[in-house]
Prior knowledge:
Layout: H1 2-20, H2 22-30, H3 35-44, H4 46-55, H5 69-97, H6 102-126, H7 133-160, H8 176-194, H9 201-222, H10 224-228, H11 233-253
Amino acid sequence: MNITFFYSRIIIFLLIRFVLAFIPMYIAGKKYYSRGWFWLYGVFGLIPAILHAVFLPDASYSTSRKVSNKAIVSSVALTLYLCGSIGCSIYDYILNRASFITAMKRGSIALIIIEILVCAITLVDVLKCQITKTSVFALFANAFYGIANPLLLWFSLYIWAKKPEGSSMSRPYWNPACFISFVVMGILVHRFISGKEKPKKAMCFYLPVIIAVVTTIVYIFTNPYVQRMPLPTIEIILKVSIRTALFGLYMYFNEKNDVQ
C-alpha cells in the first residue's frame, strides 16, 4: 500500500512538472525560440526556464539581437549549474550542519548568503545570453568566493568555535584554482568587451580549465588537510574543472556579435 502511494505521488509530481513546463515553452515560442527544447528545459528546471524565456531577446523582430542555439545551450547549462549549486548548499546546511555548534552555523549561513549573491550577479547576464561589464564583475565575484569559502570555514572551526576536538585545520587552506582561473577569465572578458581581443576557444575554455586542473592537483598534493579528507582527489578536480569549463564555454559561445 505504501509503495503504491509512493509511486502515485511520483507520477502526480511528474505530471505537474510536464504541464508547468508548457509555460516557458509558450513564452520562448512567441520569441521564435525552440518550443521543444524549452519544454524539456522547463521539466528539469521550471523557474530557471521561465526566467530564461522572459529575459531572452525577442527574435521575432528583425532589429533584435539574435542568440545562437549554442549560446542558449551554454547559458542553460551554466544557469542549471548555478541554481543547483545554491540548492546543494542549502540542502547541505539543513541536513548536515543544523545540529552543529553556533559558530559552524554562522559560517555556513554566511557562505550560503555569499554564494546566492555571487550566483545572482552571474545570472544577470547569463539569463540574457550576453556579455557586459556585469559579466566581468561576476567573474571577479566568483574568484572572491573561492577565497571566502575556506576562510569562513576556518573562522567557523578555529576562531569562532575555538578549534573543536577533531579539527586539524590550524590555518586556512584555499584552492587557488578557482581564484586564478576566474581572474584570467575576467581579464579576457574585459578585453573582449573593449575590442582588444577576439573570443577564441583556447583562451576562453582550454586555458582556464588547464589552470584550474593543474593548480588543483598541486593544491591536493601540497595540502595535508585535504589529504586527510575522505573526498576523492578526482572529485575535487572534477568539481573545479566543470565549474570553470561551464563559464569558459558560455564566454566562447556568446561571442562579440552577441554583446550589446
